[in-house]
Amino acid sequence: LIGIAGASQNSKIMTCKIFPYVSDVAAANAIIYAADNGADVISMSLRWTNQVSLCDDAITYAFENGTLSLAATGNENISVLGYPSAYENCVAVGGLSPCNERKSYSSCDGESFWGANYGGDMDLVAPCVKIPTITNSGGYTMEFNGTSSACPNAAGVAALVKSVHPGLTPGEIRTILQETSVDILGPGWDAETGYGRINALNAVEAAVSMNCGNNTILGDTNLD
């Protein structure tokens, strides 16, 4: 291996570090900082169980100022989404097994020790089992698991959508992601997979069709 290409490999990345000392204040400040400094998309691979108005307000602030937030739903295999994914203005990203099903204790991958959370505020699902990527020590891994790996996948697609139609609002991008996802459990939304499996080609084509006549070049989007 000589590198890893993400879903939107030409996007610029702004790193807002809140680990290992995660707090409500740190998370809210990072969201606001990203929004104020030009991020079009925020990807949050984190989860807590209680609703925190400070973070909810920060995500709404970002949403109203042109930045779409996405967050992982959690890995407890329960029908309750964690926060911040459950906030109204945040895209909730669940996990997909290699066999086109919600990642669960019994899904085909054989990893019976975890499953992707799901529930009433689900938006969509993305691959989350044995994802190839780089490590924080500079090497590679073929074992990046969890909805923490699904969320940046979906955020990359959101960045692609923004890059081909920069004029789209966060709400419009969210709608495109939802409406172009591929149904898994039958027509329409369901609590386990939301609107379905995210589809980059469908999403980009939908954005291009809304931006006819604008020869926008891919890859000019800031992605956090």
Quick tags:
single chain, 5 helices, 224 residues, 29% helix, four-stranded parallel beta sheet, 8 strands, alpha/beta
- Sheet-strand content, in percent, reads 5-15%
Q: Could you describe the largest sheet, including whether it forms a barrel?
A: 4 strands, parallel
Q: What best-fitting shape do the alpha-carbon axes yield?
A: globular
- Report the helical percentage: 25-40%
Structural class, please? Answer: alpha/beta
Instruction: Give the SSE string.
Output: EHEHEEEEEHHHE
Please count the helical segments: 5
Number of strands: 8
Mean pLDDT: 92
- Unreliable stretches (pLDDT < 50, length at least 5) are 215-224
Strand order of the largest sheet: 2-3-4-5
Radius of gyration: 16 Å
End-to-end separation in angstroms reads: 25 Å
Would you write up a description of this structure?
By secondary structure, this protein is α/β, with parallel strands linked by helices. The chain contains five helices and eight strands, in the order βαβαβββββαααβ. The strands form three sheets. The protein has a four-stranded parallel sheet, sandwiched between helices. α2 links the parallel β2 and β3. The chain is globular, with a radius of gyration of 16 Å.
